[in-house]
Amino acid sequence: MFIAIAAILYVPTVWLIRLLFIYSFIELGRMLVRWFLRRRYAGALKLVSGGNSAPGFPIIAAFRQDPSMTLESADLLAMRRMELVRIAVRVGPMLGLIATLIPMGPALLAMTESDLDRMASLLRDAFAAVVLALAASSIMFWVASVTRRWAAEEVVAIGRYLEEAEANGA
After folding, report:
1. Residue whose C-alpha is closest to residue 57's, from 133, 123, 139, 149
2. How far apart are CA 143 and CA 80, in angstroms?
3. Tens of pLDDT along 20-76?
4. d(CA 88, CA 81)
């Protein structure tokens, strides 16, 4: 019974790994665009209160649209924007492990039956899936780390702006 359930999980797991791999490159591209915009429009603190737009600074842009936003709300927004990336970082290796272990049983069975072609095919698919999952998770980890730092910089800039506004009595 458990073997049948595991076999059923294999195809959805492989599809999730493929989607995760594609999504990792989409997020990498988004991060590179934001990097370019952040370099072009540097000076986040000025962007908090300034009249210019804040491309590449989504937390600051949200604050400028809603000036009543608190620092805690800005922090929550940053966490919410990173949620899917953080999940992808953690789920990728798990999916890779699942996609590796499911074909291992049939591969070992094929080995006992001296069916080396079937065994090699199953092992090739198993290890290819784990490599894709780990590559996607590695990309997503890098994206998550950089994006987390950028979000923290924006929240700090908003905090400084709010402190200055409070000190000036605004």
Report:
1. 149
2. 15
3. 999 999 999 999 999 998 888 776 556 676 666 677 888 988 888 888 889 999 999
4. 13
Instruction: Read off the DSSP letter of residue 52.
Output: S
CB-based contacts of 28, cutoff 8 Å, min separation 6: 139, 142, 143
**pTM across the whole model:** 0.84
Residue 17, token pair as written in the block: 């790994």
- Return the domain boundaries, the chain: 2-167
134-138: which pairs have CB atoms within 8 A and are 24 or more residues apart?
A: 134/92, 134/93, 134/96, 135/21, 135/24, 136/17, 136/20, 136/21, 136/23, 136/24, 136/88, 136/92, 137/20, 137/24, 137/88, 137/89, 137/92, 137/93, 137/96
* Residue entry with tokens 């600051």: 60
Cα 52 to Cα 33, 81, 125, 155: the distances in Å are 18, 23, 51, 18
